[in-house]
Backbone:
């Protein structure tokens, strides 16, 4: 016990844990390392462990953890007009957000298992994703949407040929310019229901036969600002199935849900 001249000094405190900083998020997580070894093909374990150890060390740095803290303390700001009073409708993100997006894309969280579809690639990506969530989860929204939408985009050869190379790129590009001039692209989500839920089959929104842009404008309950940090909007809706029985036609809502993709208007960016 030490007591100084300051009357408010009592004693030194020793029963507190040390600050959690500058540590490896992978090798210190026994459950994660064991799960990886169990689920990966044996020939991939050693190389994946080396890659994930490097990622875990990068994520555990003081500087990286500080980025996550800053990104949460400084939420996105909606800028409706510029200094001349002209409509802008742009969402500004703190530099820490961009730094984390750069790291996430460099790591390949958004597309690595698709661009390099080796056995066990999705498992390795899941391990890196889990570690990144310990630093900051907001950036994982566009990362997750991009990762999840790649297979849907591949269903249309024309869309895939234009977008897939941009989605595979690991060079984060936050500029508000048409996708064709960007180094990379990201996908965001548009909600069509008043309240989102875990069971997407319970959605009641119908996608009528009209332009997709019109669908988003008239039917999406949750609008998505056009200048968020993505280049494509993906949303879910049910379709109408028409069954013909002789002269009688019956229309019903399909059980199957599908992506409705609406490209952001590059002319307004």
Residues:
């Amino acid at each position: 016990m030490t007591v100084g001249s300051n009357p408010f000094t009592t004693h030194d405190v020793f029963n507190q844990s040390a600050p959690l900083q500058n540590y490896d998020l992978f090798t210190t997580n026994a459950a994660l390392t064991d799960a990886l070894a169990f689920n990966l093909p044996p020939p991939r374990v050693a190389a994946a462990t080396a890659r994930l150890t490097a990622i875990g060390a990068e994520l555990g740095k003081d500087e990286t953890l500080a980025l996550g803290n800053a990104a949460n303390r400084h939420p996105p700001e909606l800028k409706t007009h510029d200094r001349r009073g002209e409509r802008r409708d742009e969402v500004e993100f703190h530099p820490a957000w961009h730094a984390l997006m750069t790291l996430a894309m460099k790591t390949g969280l958004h597309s690595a298992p698709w661009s390099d579809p080796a056995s066990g690639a999705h498992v390795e990506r899941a391990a890196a994703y889990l570690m990144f969530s310990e630093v900051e989860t907001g950036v994982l929204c566009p990362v997750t949407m991009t990762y999840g939408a790649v297979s849907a985009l591949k269903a249309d050869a024309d869309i895939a040929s234009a977008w897939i190379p941009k989605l595979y790129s690991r060079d984060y590009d936050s500029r508000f310019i048409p996708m064709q001039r960007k180094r990379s692209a990201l996908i965001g989500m548009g909600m069509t229901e008043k309240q989102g839920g875990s069971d997407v089959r319970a959605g009641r929104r119908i996608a009528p036969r009209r332009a997709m842009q019109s669908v988003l404008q008239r039917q999406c309950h949750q609008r998505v600002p056009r200048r968020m940090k993505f280049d494509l909007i993906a949303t879910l809706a049910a379709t109408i199935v028409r069954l013909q029985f002789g002269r009688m036609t019956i229309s019903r809502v399909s059980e199957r849900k599908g992506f409705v993709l609406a490209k952001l208007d590059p002319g307004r960016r």
